[in-house]
Amino acid sequence: MIETIHAGATVSISDLKKNPSGVIEAAGGFPVAVLNRNTPAAYLVPAAAWEELMDRLEDVELADLVRARADEVPVAVSLGDL
């Protein structure tokens, strides 16, 4: 069976257990596929990359909301009403 790996680097679970900090450092800020018997079992994503991914996902969700509301009729509100 062919598996797609969505990372530029891989590490076995055994090697990850031996030196997790070394794997993170060697990855240079990029995700690492964690393999179990040569099959991707998980992805190790550095905190900065995860935060960027979450920011982008939030941007996509906000853009969808803007598009969904684009045809709504605006309601006039004054600061006194708030």
Characterization of this structure:
The chain is α+β, with helices and mostly antiparallel strands. It has one domain: YefM-like fold (3-Layer(aba) Sandwich), CATH 3.40.1620.10. Helix content is 45%, strand content 18%. The chain has three helices and three strands. It has helices at residues 13-18, 20-27, 47-69, and strands spanning 9-12, 32-36, 39-44. Strand 2 (32-36) and strand 3 form a beta hairpin. The mean pLDDT is 93.
Could you say which overall geometry the principal axes of the C-alpha atoms support? Answer: elongated
Helix content: 40-55%
What CATH architecture do you see? 3-Layer(aba) Sandwich
Beta content: 15-25%
* Tally of structural domains: 1
Radius of gyration: 21 Å
At the first level of CATH, what is the class? Answer: Alpha Beta
Helix and strand run: EHHEEH
Write the layout of secondary structure elements.
Elements: E1 9-12, H1 13-18, H2 20-27, E2 32-36, E3 39-44, H3 47-69
Keywords:
about 80 residues; alpha+beta; YefM-like fold; three-stranded mixed beta sheet; 3 strands
A few lines on this structure:
With 82 residues, the chain is α+β, with helices and mostly antiparallel strands. It has one domain (9-70): YefM-like domain (YefM-like fold). The chain has helices at residues 13-18, 20-27, 47-69, and strands spanning 9-12, 32-36, 39-44.
